[in-house]
Specification:
Elements lengths: L2 H25 L11 E3 L12 H8 L4 H4 L7 E14 L2 E12 L2 E8 L4 H5 L8 E6 L2 E16 L2 E16 L8 E8 L7 H11 L10
Parallel strand pairs: 1-2
Antiparallel strand pairs: 2-3, 3-4, 4-8, 5-6, 6-7, 7-8
């Protein structure tokens, strides 16, 4: 094949590929037309927590306007899940802290509930050195602070863990008197940029009243 024929052949291949990609893209469903992600459980064999379960937290968090509340109205929810996480701070005493996570294209959001801790336990503790800002959310004592997510790095076919991006975390007392029990809502970005704390406070003020058992008024 002479040089001119080779050039024409190459152009035809490129043109065919371009048309093929155009046809594939044209026939792909618009992400906005896809059904919203539904809440799933990763621990079906674990009893649901009371008075609030991870499933209920997920249903409160996985709301249609979540992207708008985060300031990214065109974002799409990829997944929504919940679990009944168990922990122990005393010997032979197990507690269950339900949690829910919703992952979007640009953000991840996590909501947890704890019966055994208050905002005062964190803010007024002499042993914990967590730097943050006192807040008030819907008349409830709250505490806003930053944290680090866990990153996974793949190199030479092997995976390792290390510090990830910055998260913003807001702990809110379950009752106005901060008598015990908290909700904590956390957000972090997929691009590892620090999230806006004001966005988190606004999000909490909209989501928490929809959680079963949140005091009315």
């Amino acid at each position: 094949m002479n040089e001119g024929a080779q050039v024409v052949s190459a152009l035809l291949v490129v043109a065919c590929l371009a048309v093929g990609f155009w046809v594939i893209a044209k026939n792909q469903p618009d992400p906005k037309d896809s059904p919203p992600a539904s809440c799933s459980r990763s621990d079906e064999d674990v009893p649901l927590s009371k008075p609030v379960s991870g499933v209920q937290l997920c249903e409160a968090l996985n709301r249609p306007d979540l992207p708008t509340l985060l300031g990214t109205p065109d974002d799409r929810v990829w997944s929504a899940s919940s679990k009944e996480a168990t922990s122990s701070d005393k010997r032979d005493v197990m507690s269950t802290d339900p949690e829910a996570t919703v992952q979007l294209e640009g953000y991840s959001v996590k909501l947890t509930e704890s019966e055994d801790i208050s905002v005062s336990d964190i803010v007024d503790s002499e042993f914990l050195s967590i730097t943050g800002e006192p807040k008030t959310v819907l008349g409830h004592r709250a505490f806003l602070y930053s944290g680090r997510t866990l990153g996974i790095v793949f190199k030479d076919g092997k995976g390792s863990t290390g510090p990830g991006g910055v998260s913003r975390n807001l702990m809110v007392a379950k009752d106005p008197k901060d008598g015990g029990g908290t909700y904590e809502i956390s957000i972090w970005r997929q691009d590892d940029l620090p999230p806006d704390g004001r966005t988190l406070v606004w999000l909490a003020s909209q989501v928490l009243p929809t959680v079963p058992g949140w005091p009315a008024g």
